[in-house]
Amino acid sequence: MTETILVTGGAGYIGSHTTLALLEAGYDVVVLDNLCNSSNESLHRVAQLANKAALFVEGDIRDAALLDSLFAKHPISAVLHFAGLKAVGESVREPLRYYENNVAGTVTLCQAMARAGVYRLVFSSSATVYGEPTQMPIREDFPTGVPTNPYGRSKLMVEQLFADLAQSEPSWRIAALRYFNPVGAHHSGQIGEDPNGIPNNLLPYISQVAIGKLAQLAVFGNDYPTVDGTGVRDYIHVVDLADGHLKALQAMTSRSGLHIWNLGTGVGYSVLQMLKAFEQANGLTIPYRLVARRPGDIAECWADPAKAEEELGWRATRGLTDMMADTWRWQSANPQGYAVAAALNEPLSA
Ligand code: NAD
Ligand code: UD1
């Protein structure tokens, strides 16, 4: 029988790629998104690519009555929970908004799931919960650290909440996926990352320099103890990440309790290596300057992905060239992101 999955935040960057992967794998999908950081144009594109549409419901995970009605109306067997706010600087300025959406929103969602008797949940956590690890690569059994901002703390709080929940009620089957640095776009160039305003993250910034929206990249610090002095991260293609969610969803049919998996490639690249890779993959030159470190940044961070490979049968297969080519295909085909197409479209709603 076809399973129906509720995807919160399914119109967003990672949620839209995962919704596509779910539809392609034969699932029925209900997306709940308040569109506070996205456009449902992403879901129009997903429907074209999959030849099948998700049901879109515009609404908020903090709306308990709406959640109850969704669980009553649809035979939902599991929830993929992407909805949340993710801008680090904004979380420092507006902590209550972050705790309300990311922590209280998750509490409301779990309460509604329990009322409906739906206990299978896959959550978007982050490598930020490791704080400043002293050893690389990072394994899931390393102690969690002290995230440097309210966004990071909200992710850690939710993981702790899940541990308590799983302890209290054995029906819960929860996967917390600790993403490293998601980048790239679907190879069609139809869906991708569409950040609001000036991007904080490296790849969106580089691609906006490439398209001419921004003048040059500022490289934050070249005095880290790394290969070339610039920060090192584990960049993972968003389509690999989406596949990891399907694997975790399947794994949680036969497991109970809380399970944590790193989703990364196991390989770290520096900022300058990323810049060169983007230039080489796309035949472009990206102007840049070296500036001071960004407060709160760590020198390096990459995953040990062995646990996900052993237990989920998942590993990232897309390399740097794919990440760079796919990012640029999306950016160059959609210089304004979803904005122009969204203005031409009729609303897509339940
Ligand atoms: P995104 O902003 O593109 O997607 C999040 C979606 O959630 C958006 O469509 C937004 O409109 C929706 N949303 C936010 N609050 C909501 C609410 N209260 N009710 C309903 N919908 C709501 O972000 P993304 O990059 O796709 O990230 C997805 C998840 O993964 C987030 O939880 C994020 O914290 C986490 N994560 C992202 C990264 C990253 O680098 N992108 C890294 C680690 C973890
Ligand atoms: C950041 C967030 C982290 C979040 C993650 C994914 C901070 C301190 N951390 O991580 O909580 O989970 O994004 O959304 O914001 N860089 C530049 N110039 C730029 C942008 C970035 O040199 O304009 C460098 C950074 O210093 C870093 C690397 O590029 O070394 C990657 O940065 P970014 O994409 O922001 O990701 P993280 O810092 O890993």
Can you walk through the features of this model?
The chain has 350 residues and is an alpha/beta fold. Helices cover 40% and strands 18% of the residues. It is built from twelve helices and 14 strands. It has helices spanning 13-24, 41-50, 64-73, 88-93, 95-116, 150-168, 202-210, 238-251, 271-282, 306-312, 320-333, 339-344, and strands at residues 4-8, 28-33, 55-58, 76-81, 120-126, 173-179, 181-183, 217-220, 232-233, 235-237, 257-263, 269-270, 288-291, 300-301. The protein has a seven-stranded parallel sheet with strand order 3-2-1-4-5-6-11, sandwiched between helices. α6 (150-168) links the parallel β5 (120-126) and β6 (173-179). The longest helix is centred in the first third of the chain and has 22 residues, at 95-116. The structure holds nicotinamide-adenine-dinucleotide and uridine-diphosphate-N-acetylglucosamine (UD1). Uridine-diphosphate-N-acetylglucosamine (UD1) binds next to α6, α7 and β8. Nicotinamide-adenine-dinucleotide is lined by residues 8-9, 11-15, 32-38, 60-62, 82-86, 101, 105, 124, 126, 179, 182.
Q: What's the main sheet like?
A: 7 strands, parallel
Q: Care to count the β-strands?
A: 14
- Which stretches of 5+ consecutive residues score pLDDT under 50? none
Distance between the termini: 23 Å
Going across the biggest sheet, name each strand in turn: 3-2-1-4-5-6-11
Unique bound compounds: nicotinamide-adenine-dinucleotide, uridine-diphosphate-N-acetylglucosamine
How big a fraction of the residues is strand? 15-25%
Question: What is the H/E order?
Answer: EHEHEHEHHEHEEHEEEHEEHEEHHH
Structural category is alpha/beta
What coarse outline follows from CA principal-axis ratios? globular
Mean pLDDT: 96
How large is the radius of gyration?
A: 19 Å
Helix content: 40-55%
What is the count of DSSP helices, taking H or I runs of 4+ residues?
A: 12
